[in-house]
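Support case: beta-D-glucopyranose complex. Customer-provided input:
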Amino acid sequence: MQIQFPSSFLWGAAISSYQCEGRNFNTDWHRWEKAKGLDRAGWACDHYRLFEKDFYLAKSLNLNSFRLSIEWARVCPVFVEFSQEALDHYSEVIDVLHQKGLKPVVTLHHFTNPTWFIDRGGWLNSKNIDYFIAYLKRVVELLKEKVEYWIIFNEPLVYIYNGFIRGIWPPGVKSVKEAKKVLDNIVQAYLIGYEEIKRIYETISMPVQISLAKHMRVFSGCPGSNFALNSLSAFLRNKYFNFWIVEYLNKKRSLDFLALNYYCKEYTRFKGLIGAECRHTKHRERKNDLGWDIHPKGFYNILLKLKKFNLPIIITENGTAETKDSLYEDYLRQHLKHLAKAILKGVDIKGYFWWSLLDNFEWDKGFKYRFGLIEVAYDSMVRRIKPFAYVYAQVCKENKIEV
Ligand code: BGC
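Agent response - structure generated as follows:
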C-alpha cells in the first residue's frame, strides 16, 4: 500500500552549529575538550565556511527544509557584546537556505554555551537567564522576517542529564540538586523566550511557531532478577524524562508544535530513582554502531501517545550511525513506514528531519560515529553522498512511501 504525505510536508535534515561549523572556540565544549584531552571538534565539518555547498547538496537530495542551530558563543563571544560578523553570517545562511528553497527551522541552544556565561555560573544561576534572553531577542529580531519555526532549546533534559547528573558533558557536575536548579532556570528561560518571540512577531505578518526539541525514548525494564524494580525505573523515566516538560509547557500554553527527536529504545535498570541505562547484548533489537537498540515500532507508539496534546508534530531528529549503508536504509524505511502509519491513525505530523545532513562531531564520542546522509572526509573536507541518501531523496521527491 502507498501512503501519500500532505502536500506541505517538510522533508529535511538537521545539524547543530558546534557539531558541524568548526572553530567554535568560545564555547564551554571547546574548553572541556581541551581540559579532558578528548577528541576535539576543531574544524568539525568546516560547515561555517562550506554552508553554501552543503545546502546545495541538501537541495540536490530534494529536501525542502533544513534545521540548524545558531552558536550563542559566536554571536556573543565576550560578555555582553554581540559580534556583527556572526550576525551577518547567520543572516546570510538563512538567505541562502531560502534561495535554495529550504525552509529554515532554527534552534537557539543546542547544548553549548559561551565560556563567559559558564564563568558567571551558567544555568545554575537564575540571574543569568537575562543573558540568554538578550541573545535570543537579538537573533530573533534579526531573522524574524525569514524564519517561521524556532526551537528555543534542543533536548534540555539530555543536556541536564549528561552535564549535571552523569557529569560526562560540561560542566561535569554530578548532583541531582544542581540538576533541578538548571531545569528550573531552563524552563523559566524557555517561558520568557517564548513570550519574547511572540512579542517580536506581533508587529509583522510572518507567522511564528515555537517549541523545544524533545528527545523521547521507549523505556523498558531490563530483564533479569531485578525486573520489577527495573520496570519501575523505566516507568519513571517515561513519565519524567519523556513527558513531564511537554505536559508542563503545554499547560502553560507555550508550545505551538511538538518537536520530537526519536532514535531508539532504552532498557533501564534500577539505580536510585533516576535509574540508568542497561546495555545488554541479549536484547532482541538490532544494535547500531553506538549499541543503541533500534526500535521503529516505538516511534509509532510514541507518536500515538503524543496525539493527546492536539498539537502539530515535527520530527526534528531521527537517524542512526552505521557502518553498512544497507542498515541506514533499513532504519530510514522502517521509521518512515511507522511515521506514515501514525499519520493514517490521525496523528498530525508536519515534517521529518533526518539527523544528520553531514557526518559530524558526536559530542563525547568524537568523530567515530557517522549519522550523515553525506559522508565527510575530515582531512580534506570532501563530501560524498551516501547511497541510502538517494532512497531518502526519492521519498522526498515523490512525497509518498510504500508500506
Ligand atoms: C542530539 C544530537 C546528537 C544526536 C545523536 C541528539 O540527541 O540532538 O546533537 O548528535 O542525538 O546522538
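The chain has a mean pLDDT of 97.

Case will auto-close in a few days if no follow-up is received.
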